[in-house]
Model the fold of this input.
Amino acid sequence: MWMIWPDNVALSILVLVLIAMFALYAARAPMHGLLRSASHALGGPLRLGSRWLFGVAAEMRARNKAVLLAQGRRETGQRIEREFERLALLVARDLQGYPTLQRKLLEEITRVEEDYKKCGEVPPPPPDWVDAVTAVAKIKTGGGEVVQKILLDIRQSLESIHDKALAEYRRAYQMRHSILEGFMPYWRSLDKTMKQVDKNMSGIQDAAAAVDAQMASYKEIAARSDEAESSLTNSAFTQFFIAALVMGVALGGAFVNFKLIALPMSEMVGASDYLTATLRTSEVAALVIILVEGSMGLFAMESLRITHLFPRIANLNDRMRRRMVWISLTLLLTLAGIESALALMRDMLIQDKQALLQSLAATPAVVSEGWLGHIPTAGQMVLGFILPFALAFVAVPLESFIHSARTVGGALLVNLLGAIAFALRILSNLARHASRALVHAYDVLIVLPLVLEHALRSLRKAPAAPVLRELGHE
Amino acid sequence: MNSKALLASLAAAALALAAAGCGDSRSHAQAVYVLVDTSGTYAREAGKAERVINYLLGTLRPGDSLAVAKVESRSFSEKDIVAKATFDTRPSQANAQKRAFRDKTEAYLKSVQGTAHTDITGGLIQGAEFLNETGAGTKTIIVFSDMQEDLDKVTIRNFPIRLDHIRVIALNVTKLNSDNIDPRRYLGRLDAWHKRVKAAGASEWKVINDIERLDGIFASS
Done:
């Protein structure tokens, strides 16, 4: 029905296209304006939102950094404090006795020196008569008996003197050897003392090195350096995952604990009471017991100043704190005892149920396994007693988890905001470029009138730029 | 919070155990009424009925109710209830009750004697009364019978009965000799009971001939 010439479809379409083309050409300026306005309307808020989110992310990052550095400074300060305390203890323990040690060392050294000097005394030199003997040996006997007798006497005298001198010489060396032998304990004592001194010095050096390392870290944090922030963030992530892992393990323990006491709790609060459609009161009671144990553990850890989740507890005076420790430990012990009893009751209930089912099924009763049959019972009781205390230590990873979650959550939130801002920026650019592309596409649709327009213009003004270049500029 | 208040909060945490309790127990409880047909030749099926009762004793939980009644010539009477119990909420006590229950039903089923007539309708009315009294959330009547009602001339049971929110399970519906000749009699009998039970407002009507299939019904409820 829209055909101008129904008999000639092609011509009708051509004319219609031409009409449409000229109509679009007439609406070119407002259409371009519309497309640009739509682009601005869409891209503007997106760009604005992106910029705002980038700003928020930057602000949050700065705040996170400030919190992280403050936390890091506090923790490092505490660590340095502890290192100094350790160092002070080392110094007090090792260097307190140093004057005594020094005196002992000096005494031993003096003694060794004296002994050494004694060892240095040379034995008496051989007598001068050696030369005389040599001279006498040169005398010619000539066969005279008198001379021979004199020489024999001289020889005998010399031999006896020689023996005496040799004995004297040996005795002198024996004495020196015994003095030297007496050195040994002093050397050993000296060696031991020196090793002790060396060990003490090494311990102090290690402690000093640890303090140096902590001080370097503290300086970096105080300087608010990016390295310090990065290091603290990495540390927080590590702590977060380790704490989560340990808490996961603790949750497993809590689940086992729950299984141990859920059934016997039904003996105390009834098995047919329900809080919701699927949640039994006995299960809730078992859960409450486990949570109370966790709370007691938390209070005990806080009172012992192992964790610092409650500043109020940390600020209590020592007497009050000690009371709290005793109260929480007593309650924990009581609950552990109750759990142990409940574990026993669980075993009894299961056995009773089994016996009933066997009697109902008219199957022969299982023969008692003797002491082997008591192992699971004993195991359950021991588990029931130990698990509450093990769960008490959950307070430590919980504290790490809570502290590191602030950093981890903050970092993730900043990244999320950054990602959203980036996506908004991309969308804004897409809107801008889409508007340009649509303007060009519109001009492609009306290319014929545009060419005509350009031809008319070039007739009026010469020379004219090519139409395509004009189109390109727009 | 001062230090005294802190100690008080510690004590309060310890007393949090007292928070348990005061829950909704009835709506989660089950009540089962077992009608055991002792009329005529069906009395020979008493052994199977014992298995069913034992299965129910093993399945029902603390707080649930169970009653076993016999179907006689006239069954609308408390005297027909062989044993009934609402099990204690404590598992140990419930187990003791179950043992006593088993002993009672076992003794009855060993000495069961066939009756001349079969009043299933009277037993259903009696069962509905018992189940409604328990106030349980899930109410079931198990009819252990061939579902062939046979009333004497004096007994009147041809009036509408009320079995609102009660599911009725016909268990071990054996075929009679006449059913073997013409199975339409059997099917027609079951269909008639289906219509009657549904008209009485029962939530469900089920026929189970294989006792093992009871497992699926009570395990899922």
